[in-house]
Amino acid sequence: MAEERTHTDSGMGTPIAENEQVQALLALLKENDSPAYADFAKLIESVTGMENRLSIAVGELAAMREDLQKMQNRSLKASLQKTCKTLEGNIAFMQQKLSELKGKIVEGCRHILEDFKERGTIALNGLANFLHLKPALEAVRQGTENHQQVSNRAMERIDAFVSEYHEAGKHLKNMRLALMGKEPVQQTKTGGEIARYVKAPYRASRACMGAMKKYAEKAVTALEGLERQAQRRPSVLEAMKEQAAKTEPAKDRQIPSHDKGSR
Question: In the predicted model, is pLDDT for residue 6 greater than 70?
C-alpha cells in the first residue's frame, strides 16, 4: 500500500498546508495568541488528510492496473479494467470537490489577511467568514458516503454471484457423484481467488472514502468551533456602544460639579 505523504500528486495543485495565504494566516493567529488558531489548524490538518488519502487511492488504483496487465483471464481482466476506470472517475470527482473546498479556504484567508492590514487584530475575528465552507465540506462528506454505498452494494452483488455460481457447481458435482454412487458434497466452496481480485478495487475505494468521510467530519467540527468563537465575540459596533454607555454617566456627573464651582 502506498504510504501517506505530506504533499499530494493527485492533480489538485499546491497542498493546502503549503499555500502561502494559509501559512500566513496560521502564523498571524499564532503570533496574536488567537483562540481561533487551534480550530483553524485542525481544519487545515483535516483537509491535508483528505489530500493525502486521495493521493494514496490514486496510487493504489495505478498499482492495480499494473497487476491487471499480468492477468491471463481476458474476460476477468476486461471486467476489472472497467471497474478501475469507474473508480478512477469517482476519485476524480472527489478531487474536484476537494479542490473547490481548498479554493474557498485560500480565498477566505486572503480576505482576512487584507482586512488585517486595514483594521489590525480585530480582523482576526473574521474567521467566521469560513462558515461558507460548510456547504463545500458537506458536499465532500456526502460524496464519500455515496461512493462508499456504491462499493458496498457492488461487493454484496459479487458475493451473491460467487455464492450462486459455486452452489450451482456443487449441484452439478453432486449429480455426477450420485450417478457414480458416491456421497454428495455438502459444503459449497468459498469465493476464492477470483472474488478476491474482483472485490479488491471496491475495497480500496471504500477504505479511501471512509477515511475521507472521517476527515470531512473533523473539518466540520473545527469549523463549528470557529463559528462558536465568532458568536462569543461582540461586534465592533456593540463594543463601541457598551463603552459609550459606561462613559456617559461620568460625563453627566462632571458637568454639574463644574458649574457649581464656577459660581
Answer: no
